[in-house]
Structure formats: structure tokens, C-alpha cells
Amino acid sequence: MKIAEKYMTAHTFTHLDALESESIHIMREVAAECKNPALLFSGGKDSIVMLRLAEKAFRPARFPFPLVHIDTEHNFPEVIAFRDKRAAELGERLIVRSLEDSIRKGTVVLKNALHSRNVFQSVTLLETIAEFGFDACMGGARRDEEKSRAKERIFSFRDEFGQWDPKNQRPELWDIYNTRVHPGENIRVFPISNWTEMDIWQYIEREQLEIPSIYFAHEREVIQRPGGIMPVSELVQPRAGEKVEIKTVRFRTVGDITCTCPVESVARNAREIIEETAITRITERGATRMDDQTSEASMELRKKEGYF
Fold it and tell me: In angstroms, rounded to a whole number, what is the distance separating the alpha carbons of residues 198 and 218?
């Protein structure tokens, strides 16, 4: 009896197993039904989880899709280095297209050199989709991140202009997904849509996934601004009257360095981050993405224009 109880305990089906199973099912559905899919991989924690799910879905075979990153070239160097390292370790094809490509073509025009580039990523993404003929792009967005993402289906359809209409989406009853698209249309697929920030960190801990060091507490020069703490860098310099301080911080999310804020923290491993996450009452984007706080760069507006 004791042996049987021990066996049953060791094989208990957890909520992470349920989420993992759902996500793997979605990825396999994309591979089976779509002609030319891609997986968006930035080197951030959510896309790292997506890579592990893809490994479990398709290994020992190669992924039936390339990895794609739309690089603003204002990213944290630690994250870009991790992106390249992880893709090389997996031996998978990594396609990188830069906002600079769009700037040179004249399809993106910045107000100034320090203007946040996140708002323009949709332009380069749509150009990349057209260049390679992708009919589906899998991304690591989650519904708990931001209110407009909570409106989105797992299989999110975009029209021939790459636009998203939150009032015109297909039903997904009983996890049945409609993958039909007309010429020029595209699907954005979010396999971890039902995960939370807590789930991500619990999965990282369980799977012992390596992630960029800036997700853990470290000392960094920062300046305090009305929207939050900003990391000092070549792109973010103190303005008149601002004081540079050294604080122990970590990043809950990573993106354009000109608008991504760290949070004060002493969490130096996944377990300590899980404990911090359990008591926080502010969403990760609400606390750390200054661009989401402006009407010009609001998530819903960007998604309607083609953002993932």
C-alpha cells in the first residue's frame, strides 16, 4: 500500500501539467494545419517557456517552423546574447529582422533617435510575414498581462492588412480551432494564453530553465521618473534634476530599454521570485512598461495595427 501511495504521489497531474498539455496540443495543431508557421522568440522568459514546450511537442525531430525575432535594436544586450545562445544550442533556424531595416526603407519614421521603438514593431513584423509568407506566428502573450490581451482568442485572426478586430473573432468552443485563412490573412497563435506570470515562474523552476540574468535581482544604476524606475544606459541618461542611484532591482518583463522599468527586488532565484509574485498586486506590464501608459503606444492600438 505504501509503495502504491508513493507511486501515485510521484505522478500527480498538476495544473502545470494541464497547461503544458494544452499548449503542446495548440502547437501541434498549428504544425498540422498551417502551411508555413513561425515561432516568435525574443529571449524573454515567456518565449523561453515556449521553446521548452516546442521541444516537448516535436523533439527529437527539428521544429517544423523557424524562430523569428523582431529586433528594435534597443533591447537589453543580455537578452539578445541569450537569444542567440539558446537558438544555437537547439540548432534551430533563427530569423532576425530589425526595425532599422524598416527605417532604411522609409516605412518607419522616428520622431527622434531616442523615441520608443515598441510602437513600430508591428510594421517590421508585417514586413517579415510578407517576406517569408508566414501564415501563422506563435507568440508568448498571456491574457493576464494586459486588458487588451485578455480579449484575444488563442487563434487570433488578422485581415489582409494585418489588423486585429477584437469585436470580430471566431469562437473556440471545446478547444476546437478554426485555422482557415484567405489569401493575405494571417493567424497569431498564443499557446500560453491561459498561463499566468506565476505559472511561468513555477514552470521555469520545475523545468530548471536557464533565463537571462537581468530577471534576477542585481545592482544597477537607475533614475526615478514619474512612470517608474528607469535603468541608466546609453539610451537612457539622466535629465536635468534627476539623480542617478544604485538600487537592487530585477526585470519582470524585458523589451525596449527606453521604456522598460525594473522593480526593486531581492529575489535572486526562481523560488524567491515565485514568493514575490504571490504577494504582488500590480500586473507585470502595468508596473514595468512605460509605453503602455501612453495613448500613442497603448497595447490595444498597437494590436489593431498588427502588433503581436
Answer: 21
Structural domains of the chain, with CATH: 2-198+297-304 (3.40.50.620), 209-292 (no CATH)
CB 93 within 8 A of CB 69: no
How many Å apart are CA 181 and CA 135, to the nearest integer? 8
CA atoms within 13 A on the CB side of 23: 30
State mean pLDDT over 280-302.
Answer: 59
Q: Which residues pair with 250 in a beta bridge?
A: 263
In this predicted model, what pLDDT tens digit does every residue of 15-71 receive, in sequence order? 999 999 999 999 999 999 999 999 999 999 999 999 999 999 999 999 999 999 999
For residue 181, give Cα distances in angstroms to 9, 22, 167: 45, 23, 18
| Cell digits of residue 292 | 503602455
251, 79 Cβ separation under 8 angstroms: no
Cβ neighbours around 25 below 10 Å, total: 14
DSSP H or E segment with residue 96: strand 94-98
Bridge partners, residue 136, by sequence: 37, 187
